[in-house]
Write a structure and sequence with these properties.
Helix content: 25-40%
Structural class: alpha+beta
Strand content: 25-35%
Strand order of the largest sheet: 1-2-3-4-5
Oligomer: single chain
Distance between the termini: 37 Å
Number of strands: 5
């Protein structure tokens, strides 16, 4: 079990692999919001890309490489509630749009930018 400090350091390393300015710059450039942090992964939502709205990066500690995933998560609206749909319906389950496994830290930013067409840093 990792300590909170170890997890925070791991997340900082992951964010620096995406953008050298840190998460504040990602928030400014992409409208990013941190969604989920686990012992070996970090997930954030972002705007301005139609095919996916979540990006997950996880550390493969045994090989010191990263696995990256673009995920499309549909939002649950009031109309869905009125129609009788629930969160468990297949419509709202996250779908992995694109993934790459076993890339180095210096390749993560390039993968993100070429896939989305968005810049993470100026």
């Amino acid at each position: 079990m990792k300590t909170k400090e170890e997890i925070n350091n791991m997340v900082k390393e992951m964010v620096m692999a995406i953008c050298h300015g840190g998460f504040g710059r990602l928030q400014a450039m992409l409208g990013a919001k941190a969604e989920k942090i686990t012992e070996n992964s970090f997930q954030f939502s972002f705007k301005m890309f139609r095919k996916a709205n979540l990006f997950k990066i996880e550390l493969d500690e045994g090989r010191d490489l990263y696995n990256c995933y673009f995920i499309k998560q549909k939002k649950y609206t009031t109309n869905d509630f009125i129609k009788g749909l629930s969160f468990e319906d297949a419509k709202f389950q996250p779908v992995t749009v694109k993934e790459v496994k076993g890339i180095f830290a210096d390749q993560v930013q390039e993968f993100f930018e070429t896939t989305t067409g968005l810049r993470t840093c100026l």
